[in-house]
Amino acid sequence: MSTDEHTHSTEDHDHEHHEVEGPGYPTPAAMRTESGREKTAYVMAPRVGMEDAGADFVGIVDLDPTSDSYSELIDTVEMPNRGDELHHFGWNACSSSCHAEGLSRQYLVVPGQRSSRIHIIDAEDPRNPEMVKVIEPEEVFEHDLSAPHTVHCVPGGKVVISMLGDAEGELPGGFLQLDQDDFSIDGHWEADRGDMEMNYDYWYQPRHDVVISSEWAAPNTYYPGFDLEDVEDGEYGDSIHIWSWDDREHLQTLEFGEQGRIPLEVRMSHNPEETQGYVGAALSSNIIRFYEDNGSWDWDVVIDEEPREHEDWDMPVPPLITDILLSLDDQYLFFSNWLHGDVRMYDVSDAANPRLVDQVWAGGLFGDRQQVQGEEIRGAPQMLQLSRDGRRLYWTTSLFSSWDNQFFPDIADEGSLMLKADVYPDEGRMELDEEFLVDFGDAPGGPARAHEIRWPGGDCTSDVWQ
Amino acid sequence: MAATHAIELVWPDGGTETIRVRDDETVVDAATEADVAVPYGCLYGVCGTCTAALLDGDVSHRKPPRALKPRSLDAGYVLPCIATPDSDCRLRVGHEIQAEVLGTPWK
Q1: What's the domain count of chain A?
Q2: pTM score of the predicted model
Q3: ipTM higher than 0.90?
Q4: CA angle A39–A45–A46, rounded 5-degree value
Q5: Residue B28's domain is classified under what CATH number?
Q6: Which CATH number characterizes residue A323's domain?
Q7: Does a structural domain hold residue B14?
Q8: C-beta atoms of B47 and A227 within 8 A
Q9: Interface contact B41-A115, CB threshold 8 A
Q10: Are A84 and A113 in contact (CB under 8 A)?
Q11: CB–CB of A219 and B46 under 8 A?
Q12: pLDDT grade for A383, boundaries at 50, 70 and 90
């Protein structure tokens, strides 16, 4: 199976090749138990809106604890342009194509959220990825789409990217489909978007003929920064959308209203038998569970967090749930409260009744810990990534350049961080690993933000099973 | 022939830099050509990363300035990525102006 790494040392990492049988694993349990420890991380590192705004880069972080450069940013792939705002990214192939011969998890699809430019990076050698193609914004705008976000490879040799806006940066968004062979643009994925206007993240379960997409806002609303007036004016999302995977048609809208303002990351169970999942409503700071019930979809708020008073702030501040993640065995749900400053771990073995088992505070408005290794924690827990075996949780501290600049302006001068907690799934607890710190403030060429994290070989937010 | 105008860029630390900008090119394009690093993102007036405050002079936006609300335009904020000069100008620039326009919610 395709694993994280060659069996390499830092000296001889450039000549061996994977023993690739397919681009993923037959089941989530196979990925969890047979893949080996992550030894490398790819981290999106935007410099948009920084004091010294050079080009964004994909950071390569050494996660091999036996290596001399463990917990360091060891290399970067610089973007050819400035201003992209690298944000989320994905693979050309994952476990959804496990039985497709001749296909391998080799190419990273790396969109620029602001530029609408899409980069293709060949990561065949995990420690020496190379830019091989750039799709320029004009080619994307031709399809009346902009603001690329979530990238999933899908069965049938395609890559589908959620797009948040039209060519003018207004609504509606849609989905852009690329061909896996040459990364040419096919056009829109969706055949009928029904009443869907806003887009953000999406997940799919081909076995159950379903796609679930969420809502942020129009690019020209959220790009410039967060304005509560826009929330009052209904410019931010409060719904998720159910689509037919096979027919590419919008079927149903689940409207949350006050209980589900700004529903962002969508995580369905990894178990392909399941027809349920969770979405984090950032502004309402609720976790909403959605599930199939007699052929249609329904939802419940299963975690409801409260805003909190802070002496320096005029109004109670919401936690702001900005990322959520399910362990590969679907037993634990993790999420980040980017304003409050904590990561939470819930036991979701009873899916409709999550049980808080632990939390780690680090940075943010309320974290009792504001430093790691003497370094100020700029920002707060944000994008999460869990090791495949569920024992190490990593996160970065930047949300989005313009929102960072409103809430945690120090990131613009000094960059953000990548941190880690050790997770003990058998004991239902986690602990900050104070030995681990990657300071993107020290990046070659100047400080950078740090956003989504992925491992070579796939991770908890990349792979889907048929 | 396109006319050119002198655009004085005023940085947060009080430093200034003057670039020549033709009336048919954007301030960001001219700055990039002159190797002066001003902030920008989308390059089509939607994202607000480049937001600057017009201190003197006049500019025109060659596309709708979608990143700025009417009140921000009224307050003199402009988008250098789509702004062409109509006269000599002074522009306050820097990455933090984008956040200054909206402030910090709840604070």
Answers
A1: 1
A2: 0.95
A3: yes
A4: 170
A5: 3.10.20.30
A6: 2.130.10.10
A7: yes
A8: no
A9: yes
A10: yes
A11: yes
A12: very high
